[in-house]
Amino acid sequence: MKVTYKAAAKINLMLDIIATLPNGYHSLFMVMQSVSLFDKITVEKTSDGGIVLSSNEPAIPCDETNIAHKAAVAFYNFTEIEDRNISIHIEKHIPFAAGLAGGSADGAGVIAALNEIYETGLTERELCAIGVKVGADVPFCLTGGTRLAQNIGEVLSPLPDLKDCYIVLAKPDIGVATGPAYAEFDKHGVRHLDTGSMLFAAANGDFEAVCAKTGNVFEQLIEVPQRVPIKSVMYENGAVCACMSGSGPTVFGIFNEKENAEKAMEQLKEKYSQVYLCQPVNSGVIKE
Length: 288
Fold this sequence. Notes:
The chain is α+β, with helices and mostly antiparallel strands. The chain has 2 domains: about 1-160 and about 285, Ribosomal Protein S5, domain 2 (2-Layer Sandwich); about 165-280, Alpha-Beta Plaits (2-Layer Sandwich). Helices cover about 35% and strands about 30% of the residues. Strand 3, helix 1 and strand 4 (about 85-90) form a beta-alpha-beta unit. Helix 6 (about 195-205) runs antiparallel to helix 7 (about 205-215).
């Protein structure tokens, strides 16, 4: 049996670090949104060979360090299934190390596919319990849509869908290390965002207020030199807001008009190789 799922990227409409937890992790407040940039995850039941990964992207590891492999192991451990022979192919479209949860999306796609292949009938809560064992963003990538994410990201509350709009993603050709940014927070803290107003706006489906309150504390902790010029291009072309996603370096801009979004995308493509035009979607994993 072979199944294929599209796994959506995410952006953070808001990301605030609330506190450092006793276990060393960080308590977060995030309003997260799935967008129509997808990896394609194909999982096939095989007769032997164990868990075998492959990908069209040579830069990602196809071994047990890949979150997709970890997700498969976590699924098997949770369900206590002993027949653990599958092939997983990851067709990458989401940039990796970009703040878009590409790896977590792949893990979510694997969990959803295995649930179907083995006809385990797990609930959303059970699927998310598997997902959080391999990555804090995996539960959101399984559910998707517009959600408030708290604690380390695994406590999820549904919010009204974001209205139809156009989202431009631009990833500079650099990488970002999240660990040092959290270390800076532990040393110095941040100027916290207006989380109460953001939650009120999101809960009431107030698109304009959500855009007005969009923000990311990692912009105070992580230096991405291209962030300001990318935002400038977006605002010059009519973006209603622009912000870094996750720990970066990807910057997104939200537009009411497709024409304006396309103009911004074309200008950004002159300088950056990874620029995408997408829209909000209300699911994290979608069967093809």
